[in-house]
Design a protein that fits this description.
Blueprint (H helix, E strand, L loop, with lengths): L1 H59 L4 H16 L2 H23 L3 H5 L1 H36 L3 H5 L14 H4 L7
Amino acid sequence: MLIALILLGIVVLLVIIVIALYNSLVRLRNRIDAAWAQIDVQLKRRYDLIPNLVETVKGYAAHERETLEKVTQARNMAVAAEGPHQQAEAENVLTGALKSLFAVSEAYPDLKANQNFLALQEELTGTEGRIAYARQYYNDQVYKYNTKIQTFPALLIAGPFRFTEREFFEADDESRGPVSVSF
């Protein structure tokens, strides 16, 4: 009778451990989904700002058509991108196009002084900061989740319940390089 109670106690303890591990994996997976949704919200905000910025620049720099078209194309590619890898690539292209747009604005003093342009530029800068924070939070959650499903004892639960690794939101090689500033 005592042996049966000990075995029953061990089985109950194992069931509790499996439930706790499963629930912790589900919580981590949900945090990743929430973090990705936050990135998506910030990117949507960025995408909504870009057409207004392009229209403002168009009024002052009509003959910079190629730059404006590149920004619009990059924005459209970023809106259509899916998954962290494709999204990161599209965002890097868009960031480069926006840098070109702001470089163009340097040649037009009236544009640089335009209150609409300044407000959009400031709003875009703030949004970039929020996107960077959201990406960092997302990658932190992916790191915790991937580490958990690859380590013992959670890996015993992760496989049978199909918890698979998640992809990091990674910067391109250009973004990793040194920043050059020239005056």
